[in-house]
Amino acid sequence: MNPLTEVPTYAIRNLTHQGLRSYLTLLGVVIGIAAIVTLFSLGSGLNNAATEQFEQLGSNTLFVAPAGEFGSQSNGSSTNVKTLSESTIQKLKSIPEVEVVLAPISAPTTVTFGREKTRATFIATSPEESREFQSTGFLEFAEGREPTSRDTFSLIIGHNLAKKTFENDIRVGDKIKIEDRSFKVIAITKENAQSFGGGPNTNNTIFGSKKGFSQVFAETDPVFLLIKTKKKDDVQLVKDKIERVFESVYGKDQKVYEVQTSEQLLQQIGQFLGVIQLVLVGIASISLLVGGIGITNTMVMSVLERTNEIGVMKAVGATNTIVLSVFLMEAGFIGLVGGVFGVIFGYALAFIVGAVSMASGLALKVEFDITLVIGSLLFAMLVGMISGFLPARRAARMDPVVALRGIE
Predict the structure, then answer these.
(1) b/e string for 43-52 if b means 16 or more Cβ within 10 A?
(2) What is the pLDDT of residue 387?
(3) Whole-angstrom Cα distance, residue 10 to residue 29?
(4) Does pTM surpass 0.90?
């Protein structure tokens, strides 16, 4: 019988014969592959969640923020943050290709309900802007009604603030205080999973009117803008026009504000997550290296313990190539078995972390990736074969007479 057809039997017999040593060898491969699969899956999950939320905003969206807020490398350091005046916003709204300009005002504040206090972010919008935020999917009501122009001292409360922060739940119709000013709750948002870099965390946010905001806070001009174009093809043109408006206001080569498209921000997030992934996977690969060393050790011992078997194989006509192939495939099978269990444990851990993250309010969309599975299995098998190459070559070069005597 051709020994190559019996390689799986040889490999399984060797794994069981070596006992604890083989299982510890497998453990190193399992840990390494599991760590790599888990980290890649979680990184992809974060990227998927961010992509999904940016798709809700649409590819025709631009973001305006103080220089440096996007994490991009601008020419020089950002200057002191300046608020955007109404005249500047009107110039942006007058751009023919612009459909809508959202200019919310925000400030950190103290929220009092009963005798309890907490910190939160107050975002002030107009009723029209509130409806635009709802269309993006970031602001969804679990209960209550939409604000109107008459709701000066009315609020929309984030889910966590209403249900998880205070001893008693806040309900629609309740009164709360913002910096000692009384406001009425008219709506409570749905619980929103927050992605990496995607949109405001509405769970811990208060939405109110700009009129009510001006009664509490001194600064009433916005710092951030969200601008939508009429057509996707107009995004770059509008970006250039916005930058020219800022140059006319703050001077040529201004470093006060910068403009980014949703695609640019998503690309930056992807690059950042990619770097983190590579670093973590590099650290996780140390476990796989240890597993490879274990495979080498196991195969060396296997060659030493099976010299008679090697001699018999050669005596009945097995060539050096066949003996080399048998031991190489055996080492690869050890890596493959470790890879299979590593993929299973890796995905199990990734889905558990994803479920826990979603439950805690962080969007983490872990998905099964067949390319990652196949790549991990091939990589594990390759590590096994590379690790077993030297012992396999040693077995292939044995003199059959010497091997039959059980001597190297």
Answers:
(1) bbbbbbbbbe
(2) 82
(3) 20
(4) no
